[in-house]
Specification:
This protein is α+β, with helices and mostly antiparallel strands. The chain contains 7 helices and 10 strands. The radius of gyration is 27 Å and the shape is elongated.
């Protein structure tokens, strides 16, 4: 058919009007039933380039991020990227309909409306807050307020959008009728991913243990001490370590600095041990 055909154009206009009426009716029904509406529009960097795996992962990881934020709001900040099963079910987004304009997908989630706010109001607000990450300090602040698990979910979501060269236009209509929205291109997602990659938490504390000197290599500046029926510490000598006569297999009191590093992007903790002092014991 000729795209300029008058009858065809009239039919298209009629269908658009009908679709708009249906959209308005859905939003009115959603407002009455405390249903939150999310419009997730995918914007490819290259026109008409919609990688299926990237789109599927983008939506899946968005769901995981939203549920993890909701979990944090209900149950408190979590260290690991796990979501309580009941909270995952409650925050599950459902497909409403698709719409034109790149690739638009309308998602719905059933909530409840209290006197002051709806079920997901604070989670939706927090979702937009996490998109404002600009520095390593902001990443650490977010980890302390919502948990390391939320940071890991943001990283995963940003990474797939960045690598797939997908931007998003995310708009929420909350149960109170308030509209929120933000457009993020794939470069911003790569920026968020890189900021989180470069961010970590470090903490230090000293411990005193009584253990057996398993190895002590002065040339390589390495040691290993094993606590009977306990932990084994393996690491390096401190720069100011005073080296006494050391006998392998002998019991010592050891002062050790423990440095813990948590890497957000990998959801992994690492420990380093530094021997500060070593004293013989007769016990």
């Amino acid at each position: 058919n000729d795209p300029q055909d008058r009858a065809l154009q009239m039919n298209l206009k009629s269908m658009r009007r009908l679709a708009e009426k249906e959209r308005i009716a859905l939003e009115e029904a959603a407002a009455r039933r405390s249903v939150e509406i999310c419009r997730y529009r995918i914007i490819p960097y290259r026109e008409y380039n919609y990688p299926l795996l990237g789109i599927a992962e983008s939506l899946s990881r968005f769901q995981q991020l939203f549920s993890q934020i909701y979990d944090a709001k209900i149950g408190g900040a979590r260290e690991r990227a796990r979501i309580r099963h009941d909270l995952l079910e409650k925050s599950m987004l459902n497909l409403g309909y698709t719409y034109t304009g790149s690739l638009g997908i309308t998602l719905l989630v059933q909530g409840e409306r209290g006197f002051f706010e709806g079920t997901f109001d604070s989670s939706i607000d927090a979702l937009y807050d996490v998109l404002e990450i600009e520095s390593a300090d902001a990443v650490r602040d977010l980890a302390h307020s919502l948990g390391r698990a939320v940071v890991k979910r943001i990283y995963d979501w940003a990474a797939i959008n960045g690598s797939s060269q997908l931007g998003t236009d995310i708009g929420w209509t909350r149960s109170d009728g308030r509209l929120l929205g933000q457009v993020i291109d794939h470069n911003k997602y790569n920026f968020i991913k890189n900021i989180i990659t470069e961010s970590e938490e470090r903490s230090e504390n000293d411990v005193t243990v009584r253990g057996i000197l398993v190895s002590g290599n002065l040339q390589r500046q390495r040691f290993q001490i094993s606590v009977p029926d306990g932990e084994t510490y393996s690491g390096k000598f401190d720069d100011d370590f005073v080296r006494p006569d050391m006998t392998l297999g002998k019991l010592y009191d050891a002062r050790i600095k423990v440095t813990r590093t948590y890497v957000y992007a990998q959801d992994k903790s690492e420990e380093e041990f530094t021997l500060l002092r070593l004293e013989e014991t007769d016990s």
